Amino acid sequence: TQWPIPYERVTSRPTNNPYCQAGLITFCPTGKTEDAMVYAEDDDDIIEIFALKKPVWSFKFGDLMAKFKVMHDALGFRSQKTGLNWTMEWYELDQLFNCTFPHVLRDDSFIWCNQGALCVYEGIVDSLWNGTSDLSMLKKVGQTSGKNYNAWASWAVNDNNTGVYYETWSVYSDNGPNATIYFDSYDCASFVIRGLNQLYRYGAEILPNIHLNYTRINLYAYEPQLLGTYNQIIQNKTLHKDFINFYREFDSKKPTTEDWIKSLLEIYETFFISRRFYLYFNNVYWYMRLKETTPLKITFYEIPIGSILKNEII
Ligand SMILES: CCCCCCCCCCCCCC(=O)OC[C@@H](O)COP(=O)(O)OC[C@@H](O)CO
To answer: Listed GO molecular functions (predicted)?
Structure first.
């Protein structure tokens, strides 16, 4: 197997299952509709680029998740000509837990509510990004011409229409510097990293001395084994039973009430006991035995801006 398994794009975004509900807050409440984008009116405009960071679920828990270094990332833009600014965030249509674990129905079938999408809306809410957490951020990282920004904006629309599935997990062979990466996450941070990389490719000037850290929830595993699709797995009775029990266990821990943190802690603890995982990636399932020493770790490492700008990121 050639690792990491490349993230598969689609030709067009599928309709979200009506069963899937965002719950606490609807997706992109103040945002624009499908294929939404903000374009510069003038090719000669100067569009300023901002890196935005805030604690995940700050609307509910304030800075709490920042204590675990669980941060949400976005991009902000401002036109020097008009003074107008706008925000772009890529995140889950139906909240994080729905992207991380399926709904297991009575007949043992699954429903995955794991789409993510770009939310584009006028304004940059300073109080949201310039919060009290020392990890929050609203920082200018560069600028570009109106012409180059518009070319990039078309890239962002296509990126949003083809990269539709959220992936919470990053999976490595170990937590050392020479680890093999088996699977890479596809989340809010991935959009910002891809977005900055493409803005640079479309001619943006990125300021020097930019230091950006990104949250990852990492699993450390022995080499994953491909199991195949749900329908292939249910052909094997023993595997099917274990597979269903695994996901039913996690589904039962998903917060249905307000006790998100309790669910989070229960799930976190499960990883250190069971040390095994079924990963759903590109619509197929993989089985992994997790490493005894550190099965799971949330990291917030800096990704050098040079490697963000120069790496081939798809
Ligand atoms: C064990 C399973 C769950 C573990 C949870 C802790 C680790 C999470 C790591 C992933 C980082 C998530 C980054 C991201 O994609 O954030 C997107 C979204 O969850 C942020 O949601 P929000 O409600 O805080 O912000 C959306 C708001 O800005 C909309 O305007």
So the answer is: hydrolase activity, acting on glycosyl bonds; palmitoyl-(protein) hydrolase activity
Tens digits of residue pLDDT in 249-290? 888 888 876 777 888 888 888 899 989 999 999 999 999 999
Q: CB neighbours of 264 closer than 8 A, spacing ≥ 6?
A: none
Which residues have CB under 8 Å from 283's CB, separation 6+? Answer: 8, 229
Q: Which atom of ligand 1 is nearest to the CA of 100?
A: 2
Residue 25 lies in a domain: no
11-22 residue pLDDT tens: 999 999 999 988
Name the residue at shortest CA distance from atom 23 of ligand 1. Answer: 57
Is 252 contained in some domain? yes
Closest CA to ligand 1's atom 15: 188
Alpha carbon distance 49, 44 (integer Å):
16
pTM over 0.90: yes
Look at the chain and report how many structural domains it folds into. Answer: 1
Domain that holds residue 80: 46-309
Q: Residue 4: inside a domain, yes or no? A: no
177 falls within a domain: yes
| Residue 234, C-beta contacts closer than 8 angstroms, at least 6 positions apart | 108, 240
